[in-house]
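Technical annex, item 7. During the second reporting period the consortium partners agreed on a shared format for inverse folding records so that results from different sites could be compared directly. Each record opens with the tokenized structure and is followed by the designed sequence. A conforming record, contributed by the partner at site C, is shown below for reference.
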């Protein structure tokens, strides 16, 4: 009898997990519209990040889960950028109001993959992008 109860408990727990998992993916709703012409993605740590790569400039704007900008003085990090099979590490320094920026060795052309490892208000934020170069 106890064995049957344990099986029912496990089935109920698994069913509940599977039913609630999709809701976690939408915990922060739809991403905000890009405000600077880049691509927006949800980063770890409940932050939204907009990335733009224009020529040799890498710029990221960071906001919290309510889309409230994080001040640039509280931002920092680095970007690992893959262009034509070559990886470049770019230091990102505070820039305008809520952004960090860095410079590539040469202007980006074509498809670019970038992984950002940021700190926002002392909290780590990681996010990956695949963006067209401008």
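Designed sequence (site C submission):
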């Amino acid at each position: 009898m106890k064995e049957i109860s344990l099986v029912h408990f496990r089935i109920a727990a698994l069913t509940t997990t599977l039913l609630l998992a999709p809701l976690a993916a939408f915990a922060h709703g739809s991403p905000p519209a890009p405000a600077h012409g880049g691509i927006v993605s949800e980063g770890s740590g409940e932050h939204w990040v907009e990335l733009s790569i224009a020529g040799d400039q890498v710029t990221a704007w960071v906001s919290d889960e309510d889309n409230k900008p994080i001040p640039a003085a509280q931002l920092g990090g680095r970007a690992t950028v893959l262009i034509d099979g070559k990886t470049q590490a770019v230091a990102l320094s505070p820039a305008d109001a809520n952004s960090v920026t860095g410079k590539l060795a040469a202007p980006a052309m074509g498809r670019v993959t970038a992984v950002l490892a940021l700190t926002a208000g002392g909290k780590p934020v990681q996010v990956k992008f695949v963006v067209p170069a401008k």
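The domain at 39-132 is CATH 2.60.40 (Immunoglobulin-like). The first helix runs from residue 2 to 25. All partners now use this format for quarterly exchanges.
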